[in-house]
Amino acid sequence: MQPSTDESARPRGTWRNKFAVAFRGLHLGIHGHSSFFVHFFMTALVLVTVWVLACELWQWCALLGCIALVLTAELMNSAIETLFRGLDEDHKARCWPALDIAAGAVLMASLFSALIGLLVFGSRILHYWMR
Asked: Residues 24-42: pLDDT tens digits?
């Protein structure tokens, strides 16, 4: 008899277990993916710049949202790459577009986040320069 794949058949975990699984997934998503080093470096750079330029609350929120968007897109890309590595060669040949689309999503999130960062930082620098 095969185990049920029905979601309702899975035992419900406690909130503690759900958070443990989520943190384990976060660790697995970050571990071994070199692109996260670049994202974390840029995150630190953005946060220092936001602090130095004394950005307003809405600017903090916009930039933190951009950071979350890029890191989430990168985690989804990592999840798809992990699934891809588990496929046999026949399935891999047909699934390459999924990897490219996931990478495109990270690129799109990064480009729009960079644009928002330029607008926020540009307006702050212009504000100080016009004083």
From this structure: 988 888 886 778 888 989 9
What does the H/E/C string look like for the chain?
CCCCCCHHHCCCCCHHHHHHHHHHHHHHHHCCCCHHHHHHHHHHHHHHHHHHCCCCHHHHHHHHHHHHHHHHHHHHHHHHHHHHHCCCHHHHHHHHHHHHHHHHHHHHHHHHHHHHHHHHHHHHHHHHHCC
In the numeric block, which tokens belong to residue 42?
Answer: 């840029």
- pTM comes to 0.81
Would you state the pLDDT for residue 1? 44
Cα distances (angstroms) measured from residue 60 to each of 33, 39, 52, 69, 102:
27, 17, 12, 14, 27
Which of the two residues, 76 and 4, has the higher pLDDT score? 76
- What CA–CA distance (Å, rounded) separates 61 from 12? 34
